[in-house]
Amino acid sequence: MKKSLLNMSYNELDILLDSLLDSENLPKTISYKDDTINYYRYSRPRLILKALFRIIEIEFFYHSNIKKRVSHFKNMDLSDSLKELIFTLKLILPDLLRRVGGTFDIKIFANYMISAILYDASCDIPKFRRYLTDFDAAIMSNKPIESKDEYLVLFNESTNYIKKNVDNDIFDTFTTYMQIEHISQIMSMYQQSDKPMSKESLLKVTLAKGGIAILACSYIMSPRMNQKEKNAMYEIGGILQIFEDLYDLEEDLKIGIQTLPNQKLIDYNELEQLYNGTVNNLINTFKINPYHPNPALDILSHLIQARFTGNIRKI
Questions:
Q1: Three-state secondary structure call for residue 51
Q2: For residue 257, what pLDDT is reported?
Q3: 5 DSSP 8-state letter
């Protein structure tokens, strides 16, 4: 690509994003809405203990495989929303991937999350914004970053680990997914104070940011997913992105990032219905028995219910 994304207009970025979404058959909106999650929650002690064991195991994984490797960079903000996303993925992905012939690889997952954390920081944290030009050139040209900077070296180590442990065709598709996320990130950073983005545009960008992040992570460990399964992953990722945007509402406004919550283009009830709809679609698509005890679904539904009924600031 001759022209850097950082020099493109919003309309040019929008056209490019649409072309990639169309080629990958990924949705630009979410059609599922439900009033409740159609999963029968269990409260048996054994199930609760299983769920708590998983949380403890994930906490250990997080500190030993992720936080330890990135926290020495000053001002690296491992926010609560980001940590919760890591926990959520580590909780639900192993079971989902097994259902579609994949295998959860803890090292691939850790390296993917590290590369995602470093990339996201270049978009969201002013101190690391200087690395965005390097990421833009590398992601869009599908070439490694040439640098001895320890920040970029760690990013290269993480992405190279993935590349060496998956087939070339899988990595090529993974790269396309990263291009979709990168375009959407640049679009979300596009400051248009005199021209707010529409709800339709923001939802498409939100899906492409959060949805592709989860789809890409799932795909490199389970490349045999069919299109319906890919879409289900993509859409649940988009909904989780809206939740993250809720956490980051004030920070996003400060740096000029428009989101559905901070532009008040989605209300509390609609978000709840969209979340329930995408979870139900995930349950149906991955053939999860809603009446069979499932620690991952149980703790996930508990966390979301707590967020809806607790101290969360309503949109």
A1: helix
A2: 83
A3: G
